[in-house]
Every structure is written in structure tokens, then in C-alpha cells.
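Sanity check. The docking grid for LYK5OOP5 depends on where the pocket ends up, so I'm generating a full predicted complex first rather than guessing from homology. Inputs follow.
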Amino acid sequence: MRGKYLPATTTDQRLLDKDQDTDWVHTDPWRVMRIQAEFVEGFGTLAELGPAISVFGSARLKHGSDLYAMGEEVARLLVDAGYAVITGGGPGAMEAANKGAHEAGGTSVGLGIELPFESGLNDYVDLGVNFRYFFVRKTMFVKYAQGYVVLPGGFGTLDELFEALTLAQTQKVTSFPVVLIGRSFWEPMIEWLGTTVLEHGMIAASDVARLQVVDTAAEAVQAIVKENAVIAASRPE
Ligand SMILES: C/C(=C\CNc1ncnc2c1ncn2[C@@H]1O[C@H](COP(=O)(O)O)[C@@H](O)[C@H]1O)CO
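Predicted complex below; grid placement will be based on this.
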């Protein structure tokens, strides 16, 4: 550019200018950049994690409860079986699983989420990433795990469980073990899926069959190890 085509200021000057309006910070194009940055950070942090299992369950589980102990045990056994443990990095079942993995000397991953009432990553997370967007974080739970173990929980847990089931049903992910711990908690839901939802023709019997329900941490880990061995054996060389 020459003469009248030369801008009055350089790109660097405009970049460093302190008197700009800041409305753009609150616009969708800028959010897209932040979303992209979250994917970049998540992928960059987790790319070399190795085999991992995502563990879900209620954020409200109390330290010292039987289910909290179950969360610790399942994570410990997953570490013994060679898996890293991924959680939402928060309290309750997430903290229990991170504690079990951390104390067993395994890789304890926490994918935190910005919430109005969130207190940050729990003390047992060794490798942590904080997300603003639930959907970015949920991509990480699936992408970097070889299966899900799900303890009893509420809406958040159900959301994470049903996302995996939908991805498997629509073949967005193939061969993805999902193990639920706690028969008395989960069986009414399985029963409803296998009768009402199935009889209305809204799911297939094979969708329900995908869910494995167990009562102990050892059974859950055995189910994960067994299904992943079958998946590995069926993979082309
Ligand atoms: C409600 C409480 C804490 C909220 N803190 C959370 N931190 C991180 N992740 C969370 C939190 N709450 C829900 N999640 C996600 O959903 C799942 C648990 O949800 P549920 O409704 O409690 O079953 C969990 O796996 C997280 O990924 C209590 O202080």
C-alpha cells in the first residue's frame, strides 16, 4: 500500500490502543474463540493420557458414606487395571474417585466446570483442566475414555450417562462400555427403559442391553476390563 491507501495507524498500534470499546468481548464470534481455546487446552492436556475411564456420580455424596467409599474403591481398582481415572473434578463422587486414583498412585484427572456455586477442583486432582462450557468438557469425557463407570447420581450424572448412550446408539462412538454401580438405584430406570420406552418403540432392546449393572466396584472394573479386551481383540491389526 502507498499514498492514500496507507492506513493512518499500523496494525500493532491498533492492537495496543487502550481506548477501544470492549463490546466485542460479549459477542458470539469472540465466544467461538474461547470455545476453540477450550478444545485446544483439553486436547493438548489429555492427548497423551493413555487408557482411561470416566467415573461419574452425584456431586452431593458425603465423605464417609458407603457410596463415597465405593467411588474410591472403583478408582483404585481401575488404576490397578492400568487405567487413568477422569472425573468432573468436583465434590462427592468426583472427589471420591479422584481420591482413590490419587492414593493408588494412578493418574487422577479432573475436568472442572465453571459454576456459580463451584469451589474449584478437589484436592485429589493431579491433572486438571477447567472449562466454561459443559459441551466442551463432555467431549473430553468421551474422547479420552475407554468407558464409563457410573455411580448413583442426579441430573448431571444422568446427562453424562445418556449422552454416552446416545453417542453409542447413533454410532458416533462404537464399542464403549458403560457400567452402572448400584442395582437398587439403577434397576427401576432400566426397567422403565426396557418396558415403557421400549414398548413405545422409542429405543431398541439392544440400546438397553448396552447397560451393564453391577453391585460392587470389583464387578464394575471386571466388566470394563472384559469388554475392552473383547473390543481390542476385534480391532483390525
Ligand atoms: C451441587 C454441588 C456441587 C456442584 N459441583 C460440580 N462440580 C463439577 N461437576 C459437577 C458439579 N455438579 C455436577 N457436576 C457434573 O455432573 C455430575 C454430577 O451431577 P449430579 O447432578 O450431582 O449427579 C458430575 O459427574 C459432574 O460432571 C454440591 O456441592
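Relevant for the grid: Residues 53-234 form a domain with the Rossmann fold fold (CATH 3.40.50.450).
Also worth noting: The two ends are 57 Å apart (CA to CA).
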